[in-house]
Amino acid sequence: MDVNSTKNLSGDPMKHSFFTLAVASLCFFSLSCNETSVGVAVPQGAAELIRSFQNVPWRLTYAQVAGSAINFSTYRPFELFIRDDSTLFANDDCNYYYIGFRISGDSLAVTSISATEAACPDWTTFDGYTLRKTWKVIISPHLLMFASGSTFLQLMCDFTAPVDKNPLVGKTWLLHASNDTAFHVLQEVGYLPTLQLTPNREYRLWWRSDCGPGTDGRIGFGGYFGCNADSGILFREYNGGICGFTPVPYQDMRTLSRGFELSSGYRVADSTATFTDSSAGTFYQFVRSE
Which domains, and CATH codes, for the chain? Predict the structure, then answer.
């Protein structure tokens, strides 16, 4: 372990405690600890700790199941989200898993799992039902680890920064300009896409539409997001739909939403927020709605 990795943690007691947990986990999972003797930390205030990572998209990067390691180079991505202090959500790039759990002492017990049953392509995916165990859990700013007997899971994420004070959050934004061709179609029919990001790392991107008298129809998508300290952002879309007849072409809405989800950076200046996808060269500029 690089000792220099600790130098940015000394000024933040919470980050320091997370680092201590991570070091403890290395000993716990039988990795090298040299001559340092560190016990496994019992999570104090576990509910508060979990809430601080609510809806962070954790990516499974290593698994050892019943003593055998899995080669993830041939697997589809598997992501896990902490929805609240009793629910997890997971996705294997085809089906969704809805997972109930409870915390007791230093253990997390998965009590129920249900999943969608979509007919997936011929992919190799991680079996989400593997999670139905009682786990020892270590969580740190970029690392989440589960261990149960001879089964060990390691998940990572670089987008775990707190968002409660992020200038994007808690406001309503209207899409004002973009070089995504789908935006111009939506603009011509007079419906400006609207964006909201919430303190629990959820987002919605939608367009107003007319679903009939007395209804508030929306066509749009949403999901979860995470940020890092370098103005990087990661979106994970997990829900969407269409309400009745709408003059907004569904396919153009779908195209723009997928393009927006690929945004990797953002900038906020005064009442303007701009999201960019550097790989594709696309941008989405929003103005704050008063």
Answer: 3-156 (2.40.128.270), 172-288 (2.40.128.270)
Q: Could you give the count of Cα atoms lying within 13 Å of 193 in the half-sphere of its Cβ?
A: 32
Q: What is the pLDDT of residue 226?
A: 94
Task: For residue 232, give both structure tokens.
Answer: 């990087």
Average pLDDT over residues 38-50: 49
Q: Is the dihedral of CA 23, 26, 28, 31 positive or negative?
A: negative
The beta-carbon contacts of 133-136 under 8 Å, at least 24 apart in sequence, are 133/109, 134/107, 134/108, 134/109, 134/110, 135/107, 135/108, 135/109, 135/110, 136/28, 136/40, 136/106, 136/107, 136/108
- The 10 Å Cβ neighbour count of residue 15 is 15
pLDDT in tens, 236-286: 988 766 555 555 577 788 889 999 999 999 999 989 999 999 899 999 999
Q: Are 192 and 175 in contact (CB under 8 A)?
A: yes
pLDDT tens for each residue of 160-211: 999 989 999 999 999 999 999 999 888 887 777 899 999 999 999 987 654 4
CA distance 131 to 237: 23
Of 206, 208, 217, which Cα lies nearest the Cα of 256? 206
Contact of 74 with 124, CB cutoff 8 Å: yes
